[in-house]
Structures are given as C-alpha cells and as structure tokens.
Amino acid sequence: MRSWQERVTHTLLFETGGLIMVTPLASWLTGHGMGEIGVLALGLATAAMLWNLVWNRVFDIWVPTRQRSLGQRAAQAGGFELGLLIMTLPVVAWWLSIGLVEAFWLDFGFMVFFLIYAMIFNTLFDYIMRQRLARGKNG
Prior knowledge:
- By secondary structure, this protein is mostly helical.
- The protein contains four helices and no strands.
- Helix 1 (4-30) packs across helix 2 (34-62), helix 1 runs antiparallel to helix 4 and helix 2 (34-62) runs antiparallel to helix 3 (70-96).
- The longest helix has 39 residues, at 100-138.
- It is globular and about 55 Å long.
- The relative contact order is 0.11.
C-alpha cells in the first residue's frame, strides 16, 4: 500500500501534469482563452480530487475488499466518472456560457483524456516506485 507521502506526491504530479496538457489543448479546441480554460480545468481537477475521496470511501463501504473483480473495478471507475460528469456539467456550461450539449461533449472529452492519461501515468508512476523500492532493498 502507498504511504501518505507517496499518495500526496502521486496526486500532485498527476493533477499538475494533466493540467499542463489539457489546458492548452482544450483552449485550442474550444477557442476559449487559456486563462478561462485554465481556471475551469483547475476547478474540475479540485472537484475530481474531492469527489475521489468521497466516492472511493462510499465504494469501499459497498465493496469492502481490496481484491476486486474487473467488473467491480469498472463499476468503481464508471461511478466516479458519471458522478463527476453530473456534478460538473452545469458548471462547465455556466463558466463558458455554452449550452448543456456543448458542455457535455467538452466534459466528456476531459473524462476520456483523463481516463487515458490516468492509465499511462499510473503505470509509469508504479513502475518508477517499484524501481526505487528495488534499489532501496538492493543498495
């Protein structure tokens, strides 16, 4: 299991890297300014971190095991993303002065981006941490 320091490091690196990549991309795709998209992305990242704490605690109560099946993992990830989408959709529409359908597609794009980014980031992060741990045991 990860230490508190490792969890904080993981979260900060993940969110910072995601914001650095998604802000210019979303600005370019939508035609909205970097500042406007940057503030929105920061707000969405903050909402995602808070929702992550709540959702995963609730899910741990519903499925109280660390040995979860692929279906349970999919339900956990899907529930997180759906809840986040429902919470942030009106904010995205309001902040960018766009309709709910446009906001849905933008929010959906953020979701797809972060799902792919999370898979890549977490794989690399875990690999690096395993390497550090192995060096610590051997040296």
